[in-house]
Amino acid sequence: MPNIHVITGATSGLGLAVARRLSEQTGDQIIVGARRPESATELKRAVEVDRLRVLPLDTSSLSSVRKYVATIREITESEQIASVICVAGLQPLGPKTMTADGFDEVFATNVLGHIALVEDLLEHLAPRAAIITIGSGTHDPGNKLAERAGFLGADFMDARSASVGQSTRQDRDERGKALDRYATSKLCAIYHASAAAIEDRFADVRVYCFDPGLMPGTSLAREQSAIVQFAWKRVMPVLRHFVEGVSSSRNSACALVDELVLKQEKFQSGAYVEFTGKIAPASKQAVDLDVAKRFLKDARSLLVGLP
């Protein structure tokens, strides 16, 4: 019986490349969550139609996550899930936007929706299944590549402050604060994986955070100027051959699938792994397990009472 893989955000960029790699390497079923399923043209070319289901999902909406999970349960019935790969994400550069649930849109999309998804699917996961969140070197104030792009590292106090996009850097302009919210969400993705991995409930599965590196050519620069978008898509992809920390969606997807999904024993659960197949560099803040545990506990409390 084929395995089942659940992926969020797989209509473009890293998520699309992950779905393609899984299709190349396995004969497994792939269930994708997408904000606009009708935009999944490339995905449907990459994965055989009889092995693909594309379902509506907006990870910034907790009701959408619940509906997605309910549909997955109907589809899979008694079958178990081999991986949950949480790729969906936003990196807006404008003013903060709040969701209908009352959360910062970046935090809700990149972090909280995935926490809800993992919690609701946990009992349906196969033994040794992989849960993968997506981190980034932008969380680290010591990351020079991120610094050149305007990042100062995560601006994190606690889960509740992060959930509403609260800033401690009052001298930052709107663009700077937007970068901070994104970096903070990536720190929280690291916390999610490291804290869940040590809980008894997750003892039978593997939980990782994956840093795909800087991936020029993806849709991440869609809010930038036309000049920046041109450089991002046409010029910067060449940098992966010369600049440390730069990858491509294809290379990063191969590392994620081959090293974390298909190889079950290479890394200890809770590891933060980068696209090179090695342990990713992390800030001192990111490796504080006590803070990670407190974050996940508080983040889960944010879900209580929501639809």
List strands and helices in order, with pairings.
Blueprint: E1 4-8, H1 13-25, E2 29-34, H2 41-46, E3 52-56, H3 62-76, E4 81-86, H4 105-121, E5 125-134, H5 144-148, H6 159-163, H7 174-197, E6 206-211, H8 226-235, H9 249-262, E7 272-274, H10 289-303
Task: Write a brief structural summary.
The protein is α/β, with parallel strands linked by helices. It has 10 helices and 7 strands.
Give your account of this protein's structure.
The chain is 40% helix and 13% strand. The protein has helices at residues 13-25, 41-46, 62-76, 105-121, 144-148, 159-163, 174-197, 226-235, 249-262, 289-303, and strands at 4-8, 29-34, 52-56, 81-86, 125-134, 206-211, 272-274. The chain has 307 residues and is of the alpha/beta class.
Helix content: 40-55%
Derived from helix and strand composition plus strand pairing, the structural class reads alpha/beta
Please report the number of helical segments: 10
The SSE string, one letter per element, is EHEHEHEHEHHHEHHEH
Multimeric state of these chains?
single chain
In the sheet with the most strands, the strands line up as: 3-2-1-4-5-6-7
Low-pLDDT segments:
227-232
Radius of gyration in whole Å, from Cα?
18 Å
Question: How many strand elements?
Answer: 7
Ends apart, CA distance between termini? 34 Å
Mean pLDDT metric: 91
Biggest beta-sheet profile:
7 strands, parallel
The share of residues in extended strands comes to 5-15%
Question: What sort of overall outline do the alpha carbons produce when their principal axes are compared?
Answer: globular
